[in-house]
Fold this protein.
Amino acid sequence: MTENTRVRPSRVRYSAVFLGLAAALAVLIVWNINSGSVHIPVREIARILFTGAGDDTQVGIVWKLRMPRILAAAVLGGGLALSGFLMQTFFGNPIAGPFVLGISSGSKLCVALVMIVALRYFSYVSSWAMVLAAFAGALIAMGFVLLAARAIRQMSMLLVAGIMISYICSAVTEFLITFAKDSDIVNLHSWSQGSFSGTKWSHVGVFSVIVLACLLLVFLMSKPIGAYQMGEGYAQSMGVNVKRFRVTLIFLSSLLAGCVTAFAGPISFVGIAVPHLIRLLLKTEKPILVIPASFLGGAVFCLFCDYIARTLFAPADMPISTVTALFGAPVVIVMMIRRHRARL
Amino acid sequence: MSEYYFRTSDLAVGYNGKPLIRDIEIRLRAGEILTLIGPNGSGKSTILKSITKHLSAIRGDSFIADASVNAMSYKALSKKLAVVLTERLRGELLTCWDVVATGRYPYTNALGLLDAEDREKVFAAMERVHAADLADKDFSAISDGQRQRILLARAICQEPEIIVLDEPTSFLDIRHKLELLSILRSMAKEKGITVILSLHEIDLAQKLSDKIMCVSGETVSHFGTPDEIFREEIIHDLYGLEKGSFNLTFGSVELPAPAGEPRVFVISGCGSGVRVFRRLQKEGTPFYAGILYENDVDLQVAAPLAARVITETPFMPIRDETYDAALALMKQCDAVIRTRFPIGESNRRLADLIREAEAMGLLREEDAAPRNDE
């Protein structure tokens, strides 16, 4: 039967993509631990990682600086790609993502606000409060985008609305930062540009719980997501409660985008470029494959970009968005041109 | 359980809480085909969308085997009712197989993976619509006719008891139209699947349906069997047609008759005149036709196109008054066209009429072969 010949080539492709991503992830993790302004031999690193023993400074660098940062890049990068995928599904638009729609900037504004206020009065902000603020900011920005989308049913206008929201939020954030205490400005400034530096283990715990829980939920939703990709009417005819589903999508994508922004600031292009590259590699849109692959892809992409961000002009750190934009933006441009051609 | 498998009661449909069409009362037995006909924008799609719960009813309810559609969950509904929508299917990178397989959605596990039985049903549904060879093709790269068949296969493998199709024949060529509708017909009759659809082609509606519903304006103007609905005044009212332009016997339509004082008389019979009538209509030449027996095929075309037709009761010799009426009209004309048709015992007076025309020097012979002069 055609069945047998039909399934196998794609199965080989899927396995190859997943194996490739896993291998890239492993290589990049090792590579990232191994590089930095202080050189530590690989054997030393292995000893530090697996026995915990070694030179105190080196142990400190590996455990306190490099490992949390690597985990942040991997988990938050994956979360960002996932958030992008969800927004693309929601709007039925491959160019939607947390950054271009202004969701990241909304989060950024709220987090900056909470940080400045909290640091002034309590001199401490809990990670959960930051996530909450970021989530609230993401939802508010998403609310504006949805209002705009309802008023003008045109995809390009949706993006314009998102970019405008993004500019407004960034402007207000900069304004707030100008009024912040001098000592906070340095931190706030580098965070508001987007960076994985300064990640602490306490952060790692919080964002891992949130992002991995979201990943699990999204994966369990791959069936209705697949139905929804075909269009609302079709999804409903297959038995999906579209209203409830849409609300869930908004919440999950905003939570993911907010969580990433709370810890790493706004990061551009990962949300658009990674799911697109993954679809190209897999040659399918099936959520059950695209969801885990996008997560892995986001992790790989951000680890790679973070490696460049912190080593290119070491010891200085570049904002991560500088690097993600450099690699992500061309992907988006090529994608738009290809889609335009396909439609002609 | 009531004797009707599907019914609506006091259903009012519309958008934003405003009823567009009221008092919709549908009664269908299992395995019946209902076709909604009516002009563009009359609300056929709105009714269909309300039946499928894509739009919530403003008032009233629909019942599938006595179960309220309003109260039913989307999931429960999806096991009873499948749809073929006009909405473009948006997915990308999907093969036709993938699209059909989405019909199994209500039956698959939490992650939507197909088991062997599901695969078999997907394959069977594709064979049912003669599309098994399309399985590996990209859904966005196939023709409209193929796409419509794939969407029907998708609906079939959802194993519904009722299928709702919104204008499934738009964009299809005549062969694919017939193919699609005969699949629907056989599904309804063999499997007892109830079918509700909207069609623009009223001739096909007449031939396909067990029940017809005419939708126009605020209420449903008529609901009944094709025999009850296909009456001149109903159809002409529904679409606002000129009198006589819709042929009830064949469900075909003719362009309006040329206006003006006829100068041409056509003597024909046994279908030989159809081509002449059509040509005169296209040239814009008004004409008389006669003497045609009331059961002659020529009359079906002459009636809407000729300024006047002289007719005679079938199987009777031509009476004097009929002959005289034809002769009187013929004398007003500048030309008489005769076609080749058998003249026998009962219609032999047509030979007299032809001879009369010849004597007046008006007679022109219509060739059997297509002409390209004039």
